[in-house]
Amino acid sequence: MEFISIKQAMEKGTGQVNVRGWCYRVRNSNKMAFIVLRDSTDIIQCVVEKSKLSEDIWNQALKATMECSLEITGEIKKDERAPTGFEISVSSLKIIGESDVFPITKDQSPEFLLDKRHLWLRSRKMTAILKVRSSVFQAIRKFFNDKGFYEEHSPMFSPTSCEGGSTLFEVKYFDDIMYLTQSWQLYAEAMISALEKIYTISPCFRAEKSKTSRHLSEFWMAETEIAWYKLDDILKNAEDLVAFIVKYVVEHNEEELKFLGQDIEKLKKIKTPFPRITYTKALEILKKDGLKVEWGKDLRTIEEDAIAKHYDKPLIITNYPKKIMAFYKLKDPKNPETALCFDMLAPEGYGEIIGGSERDTDIGEMKKALIAQGEKPEKYEWYFDTRRYGSVPHSGYGLGVERVIAWLCKSDNIKDTIPFPRTMLRMTP
Ligand code: ATP
Ligand code: MG
Predict the structure, then answer these.
(1) Does 367 score more than 90 pLDDT?
(2) Distance from the alpha carbon of residue 401 to the mean position of ligand 1, in angstroms
(3) Is 169 in the same domain as 30?
(4) Is the beta carbon of 218 within 6 A of some atom in ligand 1?
């Protein structure tokens, strides 16, 4: 017997089909049973009529409970009243795996759904988000592969910090202590002297102690590092990537986006160039909005949201104060209090989706910055070698994959954008 997906069955539209999946909903009377079958592609109503079937098959149908798995054979036909416009009149049915009383019913709290995440993944909402997630990964790979980039990887165990010590996870490593990686970047900077244009998509670990709706302690970052690139070149690459991801998801996930309540026409308008302002200009705009930020302070979530509200495309903010930036961000020679760096903010209050910069090539400057941040420059000697032997100007950035998914899927919490989220308070399942 050859099985087809529910989607393929609906495309076929008439005749006999064999489908299999899970029981999404079931309702019985003493003459009829209505089983809504779910597979990874869609749902379909299946009608079982006692008078038309053997006792054996009818008894199987009576055993069907929510989320049991089953195989069904029957005639498919159009039916406007059915939930997805088609119905299968069942001629044979077999329960493959029975289901205990399914613990998830309507209107349960977000925390309960997170406790039952391994089961809640089957919901149509999570299924839709996970399909978008898969497309976002595909889009990132396609974008870089089509431009001739090499995909490379850095170790997850790191002897040093990249983004500052406060969010490091320590791990016992034989008789030593190592850290889980916060970013591939320092290793990427060594790899570009061999490969010039590289990217990665990798888990990153940050001990985020704040309970925000935008931070995970384990998240995926798409990073690129490119030899010879200056700030302007990397900004162009970053906005092209984001526009490409949006276009790819619109092309591949229209159904899912609609299901999630996303306005597709709005996404279609996300085209380059994106607006660009400096940090200093951002402070002026915020001041007019009644939000006063002292020059030199990083933008907090509320300020990022307030500024992003002025734009309907992702916004690029450049030239943050040098002293609050990571040690590797290059000073702007024209404006030495600031760095040649940028953040990209998603529209509609989904926060920072990219952070990037041109990289410093001056070992002395970097040592000073590391000391100011309480780090030991000796630990970075191998990294400084990248500047000692044929250093070149170079730039890169990191894109928070879950932040992009949250924006595209209109998820108000980043935890919904990854199958099994990890935060300070969420370690299971
Ligand atoms: P934030 O200020 O939001 O904490 P960041 O400045 O620490 O971000 P970067 O070090 O620039 O972030 O990392 C690059 C990108 O990775 C960010 O723009 C963001 O999209 C994403 N990102 C950073 N931290 C997290 C996190 N804890 N969970 C999910 N995504 C994150
Ligand atoms: Mg952070």
Answers:
(1) yes
(2) 10
(3) no
(4) no
